[in-house]
Write a structure and sequence with these properties.
It is built from four helices and two strands. It is mainly alpha-helical and about 110 residues long. Strands 1-2 form a two-stranded antiparallel ribbon.
């Protein structure tokens, strides 16, 4: 006896979605490796770009961090609803739940 799997009517993982996910990862790792990595005297490129402009540096860092957080939460929600919910037969999640998952993961891994 083989059990037929009924496809769900929800959104599926597509090539465009995978491209979006790869783009997010490239931006995140590029920032981590090239912008915030120490280069000389324990200073980063960020330090050199915004030397003497502390308010601008902090503001831009908050905006950039917030944008990456929202993007990560969006991607977690989409991956969960498009794939995990079907594979493991669990309910879909909303944005607030995906945001909580991203914050929990960041806290647990020390990011």
């Amino acid at each position: 006896m083989s059990e037929e799997r009924v496809p769900s009517s929800g959104p599926r993982i597509s090539a465009a979605f995978n491209a979006l996910l790869v783009g997010y990862m490239v931006v995140k790792f590029t920032l981590a490796l090239f912008v915030f990595r120490p280069v000389r005297d324990a200073a980063t490129y960020w330090d050199y770009l915004f030397a003497g402009h502390d308010a601008l540096s902090i503001s831009l860092l908050l905006v950039l961090g917030g944008a990456l957080l929202v993007a990560a939460a969006f991607l977690v929600r989409e991956v969960w609803n498009r794939m995990i919910a079907d594979v493991f037969r669990v309910r879909g999640i909303v944005f607030q739940e995906s945001l909580a998952l991203v914050l929990l993961a960041a806290t647990l891994v020390g990011a």
